[in-house]
């Protein structure tokens, strides 16, 4: 008896090929010149396969990005999209920001990430999807960790966590996007220290 191919395995293989093709293409030629046809050709699938799973190239890329983040975290032995709560706020923030630096400097992530971020500035729809599906969920994790610190008495009760998180997240993003300086573990550790302890003499 001839064994039938496992359609689930075949579908997963195609999905992975599409993710990889989408990320590599947007890094090579930019978002505007990346097409569903190009992704399909690079992945070795028909474009109808892509449209069966995703309504647009933006959806393909955003899902590929989420998948890439999960893979990078797994390779590093970390839980994707999680901020630890060990009771030491500074240590927890430093740990997750160090992991973010490693991800931003990972060649697999950097080129497509820059391409999508740049396109999001001029393409309002893509920008909104990028924020809603990728950025905002991660920012919410920072806000939740800061609220936990408030409950533990480690952060003032009158502090708005959503604003406070920008003290260390936004400078890192700006430096990385605009090449205003190197990003490193030392840099993000310093951001956390400045954010939590301020600039006034102790």
UniProtKB/TrEMBL annotation:
UniProt entry tagged with the keyword ATP-binding: no
SUPFAM superfamilies per record: Homeodomain-like, Tetracyclin repressor-like, C-terminal domain
InterPro entries the UniProt entry points to: Homeodomain-like_sf, HTH-type_TetR-like_transc_reg, HTH_TetR, Tet_transcr_reg_TetR-rel_C_sf, TetR_C
Organism superkingdom: Bacteria
Pfam families: TetR_C_11, TetR_N
PANTHER family documented for this protein: HTH-TYPE TRANSCRIPTIONAL REGULATOR RUTR, TETR-FAMILY TRANSCRIPTIONAL REGULATOR
Gene3D superfamilies for the chain: Homeodomain-like (1.10.10.60), Tetracycline Repressor, domain 2 (1.10.357.10)
Alphabetized UniProt keyword annotations: DNA-binding, Transcription, Transcription regulation
Domain HTH tetR-type: 12-72
Molecular function, one GO term: DNA-binding transcription factor activity
Chain residues forming the annotated DNA-binding region: 35-54
Signal sequence extent: none
Organism: Streptomyces galbus
Name of this protein: TetR/AcrR family transcriptional regulator
């Amino acid at each position: 008896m001839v064994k039938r191919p496992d359609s689930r395995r075949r579908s997963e293989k195609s999905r992975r090929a599409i993710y990889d093709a989408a990320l590599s293409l947007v890094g090579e030629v930019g978002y505007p010149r990346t097409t569903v046809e190009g992704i399909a050709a690079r992945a070795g699938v028909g474009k109808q396969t892509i449209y069966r799973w995703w309504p647009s190239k933006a959806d393909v890329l955003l899902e590929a990005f989420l998948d890439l983040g999960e893979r990078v975290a797994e390779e590093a032995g970390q839980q994707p999209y999680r901020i630890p709560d060990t009771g030491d706020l500074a240590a927890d923030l430093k740990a997750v920001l160090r992991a973010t630096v490693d991800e931003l400097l990972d060649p697999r992530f950097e080129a497509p990430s820059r391409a999508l971020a740049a396109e999001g500035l001029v393409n309002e729809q893509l920008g909104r999807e990028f924020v809603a599906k990728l950025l905002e969920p991660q920012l919410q994790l920072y806000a939740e960790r800061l609220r936990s610190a408030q409950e533990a008495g480690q952060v003032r009760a009158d502090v708005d966590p959503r604003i406070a998180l920008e003290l260390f997240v936004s400078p890192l993003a700006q430096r990385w996007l605009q090449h205003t300086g190197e990003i490193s573990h030392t840099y993000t550790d310093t951001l956390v220290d400045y954010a939590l302890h301020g600039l006034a003499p102790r």
